[in-house]
Target: Mannose-1-phosphate guanylyltransferase
Amino acid sequence: MKAMILAAGKGERLRPLTLHTPKPLVRAAGVPLIEYHVRALAQAGFAELVVNHAWLGQQIEDYLADGARFGVRIRYSAEGEPLETGGGIQRALPLLGEQPFVVVNGDIWTDFDFTALRQPLSGLAHLVLVDNPAHHPQGDFCLLDGRVSEGGAASKLTYSGMAVLHPALFRECTAGAFKLAPLLRQAMASGQVTGEHYRGRWVDVGTHERLAEVEHLLGACC
Model:
């Protein structure tokens, strides 16, 4: 199974850090955010990774190179302009192949064990959901009996930015910029999305305050 790290965002809320550094290379405890993912995926047995990039993307390629020093092989999907989450994945499909693949947002930090995602996929997507953070109290989706839906009796949880996706999810898509969420909602409506609730540590590193939170967590555990 291959894995894709989404690394094309500009990180505007992290300026001035991201004026000259792509967001995935912003450091927490001295280590670029994307490196935590690369090492965790390698430890979980993922040998082939795809990384998309746009803003200052060459810096990401220069830093990670071919992945050999991390024990993986990295291929890149360069975007002239960011294609949103869905468009970026769709563009990278030729590198990902015809089998389900893991996708992880490059601007989160977590201690999630990606080994848990190396399972057969039932449907078109499997989402990792987390407790709603303070900045997103309304949540995104409901999880009931292992199935994810847009609404229902269960309280909503937040999509973590980690998932297993089947290439068929993008079958009707055309090239260009588009979001992933509408595709997921369409698949949910037909019962094609499973999920799990991760209760461990997870931070969406979108602001200076949340970057400081990651620094604190890493300082406490290491």
